[in-house]
Amino acid sequence: MPRTKRMYTGGYVCHVLNRAAGRATIFRDAADYAAFENLLLNAGELASVRLLTFCLMPNHWHLVLWPQNDGDLSASMHRLTMTHTMRWHRVHGSLGTGPLYQGRFKSFLVDTDEHFLTVCRYVERNALRANLVERAEDWRWSGLWHRQHPGHRGGISGWPVAPPSNWIDHVNQPQTEAEVEALRRSLRRGIPFGSEAWQQATAGRFGIDLAPRPRGRPRHSRSE
């Protein structure tokens, strides 16, 4: 059965991921990172969506967002990717060569309890997990870096769940295999991430199928 396009309500936090077509490099240098970051923080593409944290990686990005109204997520992601794609092709002299992104963004809903912190930790340690930095807070293109440099630029909203006082050390500690697999399962299938009761209720509201799918060839990925 084909998957239907879901319009998330403004009361739900969402994790959002998109990747370059063919896993090509989207961000080739600091200027590429800075241009996309500017769209996130200053240019208004996310005007109706609160940006809670993010991590930009060479060939993909993660966002944790809190839409204010029904339909805001899809509309904002459309503006963001279209504006970024036009800018990227113009700067790199590749207009008319094809899509920059592999397709429509992937997303899943997140409960605003400890599961929210698990998702944010996963996002904010992405560069560390990929061995791009020795400490997660050193990755310049992330929400964690911005919260450590609050005078640099605005745009990061407050969280619905307060992080613990040792958050940075917590982010730098490896997550369990079970946590990572549960998160990647939500990424692959759009399954809500939260307690079982919340997951069932949310899936019912949005018509999300929680039934396991037949096992196929394993996916090999160092980092998502």
Tell me the layout of helices and strands.
Elements: E1 13-19, H1 30-41, E2 49-57, E3 60-67, H2 72-91, E4 106-110, H3 114-124, H4 126-129, H5 143-148, H6 167-172, H7 177-189, H8 196-206
Antiparallel strand pairs: 1-3, 1-4, 2-3
Helix pairs in contact: 1-2
Which terms summarize this structure?
Alpha-Beta Plaits; 224 residues; 8 helices; alpha+beta; globular
Structure description:
The structure is a single chain. This protein has helices spanning 30-41, 72-91, 114-124, 126-129, 143-148, 167-172, 177-189, 196-206; strands at 13-19, 49-57, 60-67, 106-110. It has 224 residues and is of the alpha+beta class. The protein has a single domain (13-206), classed as Transposase IS200-like (Alpha-Beta Plaits, 2-Layer Sandwich), CATH 3.30.70. Helix 1 (30-41) runs antiparallel to helix 2 (72-91). It is globular and about 50 Å long. The two termini are 26 Å apart.
CATH superfamily: Transposase IS200-like
Q: What is the number of E strands? A: 4
Low-confidence stretches: 1-8
The proportion of residues forming helix, as a percent range, comes to 25-40%
Bin the strand percentage.
Answer: 5-15%
* Main sheet attributes: strand count, strand direction, barrel closure: 4 strands, antiparallel
Q: What's the Cα radius of gyration?
A: 17 Å
Text of the CATH class: Alpha Beta
Number of domains: 1
> How far apart are the first and last residues' alpha carbons, in Å?
26 Å
> At CATH's second level, what is the architecture?
2-Layer Sandwich
Shape: globular
Number of helices: 8
**What fold name goes in the CATH topology slot?**
Alpha-Beta Plaits
The succession of helices and strands, N to C, reads EHEEHEHHHHHH
The neighbouring-strand order within the major sheet is: 2-3-1-4
